[in-house]
Amino acid sequence: LATIMKLAVSFAVLALLVVVAYAADPTPAPAPAAFSCTGKDATGKITYKDPSSKKGLSGAWSCMKYHDCKDGKDTVHNCFWLIPLRQYDPQTRSCTWFWNANCDAADKA
Question: What GO molecular function annotations does the UniProt record carry, in alphabetical order (predicted)?
Answer without folding.
Answer: chitin binding
